[in-house]
Amino acid sequence: MIHYLANFIFTFTLLCMVSLNLQAEVKPNLVLLPMDVSEQEVNYESEYGSALQQGLQQRYTVFYGAAVEKELEKEYSKLNCDAETCNQNVAIAFNGELIADSSVKAINGGYILKLVIRNVISGEIIETETLPCRGCDAFSVISRLKEIGAGTLNKINNTSSAAQSATMRINGQTTPKASDARAILIFDSQPTGAAITINGQASGKTPYQGLNHKIGDQLRIELKDSRYRTYELDVSLNQAVTLLEPLVLETGQGQVIIVTEPYQANAVVYIDERAQGAAPLQFNLSSGKHEMYAQAGNKKTAAKTLTLNDGESKQVILEFASKPSLLKKLGIDMVDIPAGSFMMGSSDGDDDEKPVHSVVLSGFQLGKHEVTQGQWQAVMGNNPSNFQNCGANCPVEKVSWDAIQIFLKKLNQQTGYRYRLPTEAEWEYACRSGGKNQTYCGGNDADSLAWYPSNSKRKTHPVGQKRANGFGLYDMSGNVFEWVQDWKGAYSSGQVTAPTGPSSGSYRVYRGGSWYSYITYSRSVNRDDNTPDFRRNYLGFRLAR
């Protein structure tokens, strides 16, 4: 019996030890996102990421590399994906709750290394490390990243003894101790003057000296400057004074589309005195101020100065000469419509206004006014309008879509410009001043914006007498309907870029309402259509370019 009991105790003890060892080997799953590195460090991105992964593997089961990048690409391709939701989905895909961001930023005299680990389910910051590595090279950075990942970093290696009492590098904890003791946070950006947001609250501009924080505070800091990329970091205040290394802002990037008017074959575009290619040219450009011009043989446009913000898209027209005499006589005024996106259509209107869908557009130009009788007369030599007694400054009407194509061909031949009809999406985007939720083109008050049966006395009126919309466009609602380029077709159910309607059809679209039609036809989302040869005394058009 004693022998049996001894064997039982030995076996039970052995099983417990095995069980404890198995439990000790279980590590939390952590997804390591692709590292953010300075441009000059791109060639070392793989080595840096691998070094950090090696360190983290001592504490976590780490998922990193191609599998994570593929999952990220899949998540961020989804419509309306925000960073928090997408990162959470990526972590869940690997059966993990933890996700890590990291960066290596080269600055004068060294590097700044950063690691942030979050619980994506609860949003809790598990760990934050930011290390200034003075005088380091790539080899030193690799060693430091391993130490940061392993959690064995000697946090005072790069801090003089005099500074140690006054400086605390960012060092988060899973559960920071709450305290009523005051904490001071000091930091600046390079360049200085960036707008600061702390935990969602505007907090002035850099340099920053915050005296009213408390030990234990968890701060989410964002720095914004329109010329640079947004800088984000998380800080745990665990000491009386926290002094951050200068936060270096990365130069942003935008896109510019450059065209020449009139068009010149082999016109070369120069940006900041460097030839960039033939116009028309689409070019990715660093944010800030740039000077550009175009040259074709001995012809040179006037130089234009462009200010481009991060993420912005702009169109620039470089003109070789003053407007032709015909164009001056016509007095055609065009308005620059910026690139953007909007939700097109209506969920509670007519069936052909559904579904509401996202549309992305590049910048373009649209006529400030509807084309007038005088302008049509100057190009075509006739006036088809019913209301000729209204005058040369009244919109031309009784013009078919087909007739407008002849007008456009002659106008472009005589001026050297490239006028056209707007697409239906461009028309609605411009009407709604970039996609604002407005009943009519410019607001909700019909009388201030539109000529319609209740106030028109059943006739057209000179252009520009009502209030303009937010883009400075007149008579987008009322006066005369306006033909657009598209064939009539059903709307897309998903996001589309620069839609042009079906490739063929029976009916062309016109928009905007008229002096003749009920005010409901002047709604910004209303669609009407007819055959391309259809012409009535309430139907005109507006130029695009």
Describe this structure in words.
The strands form 9 sheets. Strands 1, 2, 3, 4, 5 and 6 form a 6-stranded mixed beta sheet that branches. The longest helix is centred in the first third of the chain and has 24 residues, at 2-25. The termini are far apart. The protein has 4 domains: 27-158, Rossmann fold (3-Layer(aba) Sandwich); 172-251, Carboxypeptidase-like, regulatory domain (Immunoglobulin-like, Sandwich), CATH 2.60.40.1120; 252-321, Immunoglobulin-like, CATH 2.60.40; 327-541, paralog of FGE (formylglycine-generating enzyme), CATH 3.90.1580. Mean pLDDT is 86; it is low at 1-24 and 155-179. By secondary structure, it is of the alpha/beta class.
Key structural traits:
Immunoglobulin-like; Rossmann fold; elongated; single chain; alpha/beta; 4 domains; 12 helices; 545 residues
How many DSSP H or I helices?
12
Radius of gyration: 32 Å
CATH topology of the largest domain: paralog of FGE (formylglycine-generating enzyme)
Which second-level CATH architecture of the largest domain applies?
Answer: Alpha-Beta Complex
Shape by Cα distribution = elongated
**Annotation, overall tally of beta strands:** 32
Terminal CA distance reads 101 Å
Number of spatially distinct domains = 4
Uncertain stretches: 1-24, 155-179
| Arithmetic mean of pLDDT | 86
Tell me what portion of residues adopts beta-strand conformation: 25-35%
What is the CATH H-level superfamily of the largest domain? paralog of FGE (formylglycine-generating enzyme)
**Main sheet specs:** 6 strands, mixed
Helical coverage, percent range: 10-25%
